[in-house]
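Reviewers asked in the last cycle whether our approach scales beyond single polypeptides. To address this, we selected a multi-component target totalling 607 residues and predicted its structure end to end. The input consisted of the following lines:
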Amino acid sequence: MSNAKVNQIKDLSEYKGVCIVAQHQDSKNLPISFELIHEGMKLAKKREARLTVLILGYKIDDAVNEIAHYGADEVIYFENELLKDYSTDLYTKTVSDYLKKNKFEIVIFGASSIGRDFAPRVAARIGTGLVADCTKLDIHEEDGRFLQTRPAFGGNLMATIVCPNDRPQMATVRPGVMETATRLEEKSVVTLIKPDIALGDIIAKTLEIIYDKSKHVSLADADIIVSGGRGMKNKEGFELLEELAEVIGGTVGASRVAVDEGWIDHSRQVGQTGQTVRPIVYIACGISGAIQHMVGISDSDFIIAINKNPTAPIMERANLAVEGDLFKVIPELIKEIKEHKGMA
Amino acid sequence: MNIIVCVKQVPNTNDVRINHDTGTLIRDGVDSIINPDDLNALEEALQIKDSRDDVKVTVLSMGPPQAKNALMESLAMGADKAILVSDRAFAGSDTWATATVLASAIKKIGDYDIIFCGRQAIDGDTAQVGPEIAEFLDLPQITYVMDLEIQKDKVVATRSFESGTMVIESRMPVLLSAIKELNHPRFMDIRRIYEAHENEEMFEMWSAKDIEVDLTQIGVKNSPTKVYKTFVPTREFSGKKLTGTPKELANKCFNEILHLNIV
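The resulting structure, written as structure tokens, was:
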């Protein structure tokens, strides 16, 4: 097999339309799919082009019919029993074969651990660039190029990347950052494709998938997040946050330090290397607010910081900066809320 | 068994600061380190080496000449051989071009059973170079590896994903990418630091010519993706500051929360 090359395309105008690659689990579309459609529609409109959704799986008619209600021009369903579970080999082959035949101008994937596993292989197989983990996508007003913006150096710097000479222009998009598409009455055309794949195409074989419910904490959907950092001091400190979260009806998150110290599970990590969140209120307790953390919470509607140190970076960026000892303030706050709710 | 570990020397991004006037990175006084996930990849290779007597671990890096430091550290941790591919022609390479260079270097090394990478580097955070190398070498891959077992002629790896784990089996040769849950990297061994410095043949530097890489696919000019612009994220502030006794603070804070209509 000879490798694909970049810088080979003579006529870029042959490439038209926007394509998104949807993701699902247990026959349900994951939120990233609707975020990709929202972005895809925005880009397609600016390019006056069509939006196509690709979805791969087996017996997922419900997910396919549902995703057809979000405004795409076409939904293409690749159905095969072998696509039931994710496989790097088969997903790469199915999507690459399709993209070789159908010349899209833009293709976007979710930057989930699955999307980040096979999008680079697709890019390498078809011979184009790929921009990882984008947090903003746009079209250049004059030259029509795809502007792909992402954080670099741990979020200290933002970089806008272009892919001038190769097509499709491809990006993965960070989950939880983009807005979600709205459901419509009308339905897209659904096309069924039986992909040309066989058992022999699988080299790395999935033997088992273990779903871990405790890992399934979706901070991305939480309206209220109570989050702790170095200032929580230990595991017991997080018990105080659990209590506050419970009375206020929120979910507990954490900074990288707290996760690295082993005070709380990695699944709760918020920030550059954790999850991006967009709650109504984010209560940051004993979190200094390193830029890596701030990039993950910047879409919160309201940030409350409780910190002893008035010069901590987060105190400069919170909507409400509470200067005090969190081990004294939080118990009082829990008391206030309980009294208000008639729980005391 | 031959294992090639790809490592990258990176600035410690925790220490990187921004000059807000110029919008550029202040690199002065920022340490260069081996990328954290790459240390997990190296540690796993060394553990495999510790567990059997036929293992050779080669560490490979693409970077400027000073990246030799990272490779000397890898040797001091226990690697058998270190190769730095370094050439002006590689400067400014994106993930496509970097993977092209590393895949060419791996072809030159030749005999391998496992290629080990870190999941992603802390300066770029792309996680793309590993899978792109695998594609260029036509190898199966398992990324986000948190547990690994070597069986006769295959590997069985536990891979982490958002809702749990997958157990994946693959033949060798295979490319694996490590995450920090895989292990705890060891420290350098003082004796091995001396050994690595005394045995010059443990370290080699290769240029573009040495690895017969396709020059039309590498470097800043031929990289498919290009930086259009960079900017410092804006930080607007219009917040309120509260001081007082814990009780007063809790009360004022609670009143603010009430305005949000969430309780």
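Residues 2-222 of chain B form a domain with the Rossmann fold fold (CATH 3.40.50.620). We regard this as preliminary and will revisit it once experimental data from Aim 1 are available.
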